[in-house]
Amino acid sequence: MRGSVGVIGLGIMGGAIARNLVAAGWHVIGYDTTAEARSKAAVAGVVIAQDIAALLTEAEQILTSLPSPEAVIATAEVIAREAHGRHVVVELSTLAIADKQAFARVLTAAGHVAIDCPISGTGAQAEHRDLVLYASGDPGEIEKLQPLLRDFAREAHDVGVFGNGSRMKFVANLLVAIHNVAAAEAMVLGMMAGLDPQQLVALAGAGAGASRMFALRAPMMAANSYDKPTMKMSVWQKDMAVIGAFAADLGSPTPLLAATAPLYAAAMEQGYADADTAAVCAVLESMIADGTKLRR
């Protein structure tokens, strides 16, 4: 047994992380507000805690993977109120830096350690430990966390002062936003030209214009199947807003990011909120002037 770790938030990302840690030999105690997420994690060997307070009695290292700043701050407040002894809390979500700092203030005031550690990667990548972690905060604590972090990610980097992890994640997510739409645009162009969608995935993906997003999302686009999300469109809208505000505050121009935003918004309007972000391909198809349906 490698040790004990608590995972708060067992959704697409947190659930995959918890399962990989169990497989790596950790005693994983998990908590989620959703019964479906709890059940899926329990099947994989995660011990489900009755609540966060119960989880804290079994693990001093805590990972949080949560959908909103409200959930993150509320969780920090519970930890600050209920935890006995010092805990190290690694916050994996994508949030505005001000929200991460508020999270850290709550925990630090109660004698705990907060680490800002966003994830670069999708839910599908998380299943295969194909994640990159941007850890920021106390360097000594980050070093001690390395065995844990590397059991659910292929790379885990110390990027400096608290908040730098989020800054690095915003840069990475800007590329994801653009490359995802670029993949959809390329797939629609190829299919409209009469090319076989599976050949597009294989051959365009092998060429100079290949990207990780094309490799991950083009197969969904070829199959016109978006109902097993690795990143839900609704959650991505939150991430897009965070990146946009961050860039605007710095005065950094982001014309390509801005060009993608209407397509993600249209996907929400067209009913793809719970679908994978690859569904921007369906949005582009809906824009085909003569209404041609692409054959797959």
The proportion of residues in beta strands is: 5-15%
Q: State the separation between the terminal residues, measured CA to CA.
A: 48 Å
The count of DSSP E runs of length 2 or more, i.e. the number of strands, is: 9
Query: What is the domain total for the residues?
Result: 2
Q: How is this structure best summarized?
A:
The protein has helices at residues 12-23, 35-43, 52-56, 69-82, 97-109, 123-127, 139-149, 164-192, 197-204, 212-223, 233-250, 255-269, 280-286; strands at residues 4-8, 27-31, 47-48, 61-64, 88-91, 113-116, 119-120, 132-135, 155-158.
Please explain how this structure is put together.
Helices cover 53% and strands 11% of the residues. With 296 residues, the protein is of the alpha/beta class. It folds into two domains: 4-162, NAD(P)-binding Rossmann-like Domain (Rossmann fold); 170-286, N-(1-d-carboxylethyl)-l-norvaline Dehydrogenase, domain 2. It has a six-stranded parallel beta sheet with strand order 3-2-1-4-5-6, sandwiched between helices. It has a three-stranded mixed beta sheet with strand order 7-8-9. Strand 4, helix 4 (69-82) and strand 5 form a beta-alpha-beta unit. Helix 11 packs antiparallel against helix 12 (255-269) and helix 12 crosses helix 13. The N and C termini lie far apart (48 Å). The model has no long low-confidence stretch (mean pLDDT 96).
